[in-house]
Design a protein that fits this description.
CATH superfamily of the largest domain: Protein of unknown function (DUF3299)
Distance between the termini: 60 Å
Low-confidence stretches: 17-31
Radius of gyration: 24 Å
CATH class of the largest domain: Mainly Beta
Order of helices and strands: HEHEEEEEEEHHEEEEE
Number of domains: 2
Structural class: alpha/beta
Shape: elongated
Number of strands: 13
Number of helices: 4
Helix content: 10-25%
CATH architecture of the largest domain: Beta Barrel
CATH topology of the largest domain: OB fold (Dihydrolipoamide Acetyltransferase, E2P)
Largest sheet: 5 strands, mixed, barrel
Length: about 230
């Protein structure tokens, strides 16, 4: 083996050893693999304090404020009833757009007394479908603004590209009366605090229940994909 090849082999070996060392150190600093457990156990088992846990639960409505940094919220045991055990979560990462009130969520992080300092947050929102039959197209709803404002209604339209925002924003997303907005598009701003179903993306046709406010913003109580688009 010539000198150049030998030096190259040594260099590659050193890089591999450094990478392995970093992985071992990272695992050690995190206390090893996270323990998959329930909200009830994480909230009451003192032996888990200081260890990394993975916990699934539903986001408690009104427990979060997107403006805080880090964001704090509460999750409840997803399989329990009305008096389900809860635990607080502190999270400083990027919040998925599907996050919101009631969202099924998996958090992983270090457990303190009654709190999880989460390093990862994953939402588990499945796709939800509803029939657009009887729902007013955006153009029709806006044409009837004087009579439908403040009244329960259903509206259907297409998600405007680039409009989807995380929960906590005044406008969660915008829908249009047509799949591609024309020169003078008829659009409707949607306010929604719960978790968005999977599939609420640019161009998706949606069916929304709620009511139109006097300011022209539609406050949604339910959001679903049009069942006619289900594959």
């Amino acid at each position: 083996m010539n000198k150049r090849a030998r030096n190259r082999l040594i260099g590659v070996t050193v890089i591999i050893l450094i990478a392995i060392g970093a992985i071992i150190f990272g695992s050690a600093s995190m206390g090893g693999a996270s323990k998959n457990t329930t909200v009830a156990i994480a909230a009451t088992d003192a032996s888990l304090i200081g260890k990394y846990v993975q916990v699934a639960g539903n986001v408690v409505a009104g427990s979060w404020d997107k403006r805080t940094n880090p964001m704090k919220f509460t999750i409840a045991d997803e399989k329990a009833g009305a008096n389900a055990p809860t635990i607080k979560v502190v999270y400083n990462g990027t919040v998925p757009t599907t996050f919101g009130d009631g969202t099924p969520t998996i958090v992983t992080g270090k457990l303190a007394s009654g709190t999880i300092d989460a390093t990862t947050l994953i939402t588990k929102c499945p796709s939800k479908y509803s029939s657009a039959t009887g729902a007013l197209p955006v153009a029709d709803l806006l044409a009837k603004k004087a009579t439908v404002t403040g009244q329960p209604s259903e509206v259907t339209g297409y998600v405007v590209a680039g409009s989807v925002r995380a929960a906590g924003e005044p406008v969660r997303f915008v829908i249009s009366s047509t799949p591609t907005a024309g020169p003078e598009p008829q659009v409707l701003s949607i306010h929604f605090e719960a978790g968005l179903p999977q599939g609420i993306t640019d161009g998706a046709k949606v069916v929304i229940g709620g009511s139109l406010g006097a300011d022209g913003t539609y406050t949604a109580t339910s959001v679903a994909l049009d069942s006619a688009t289900k594959k």
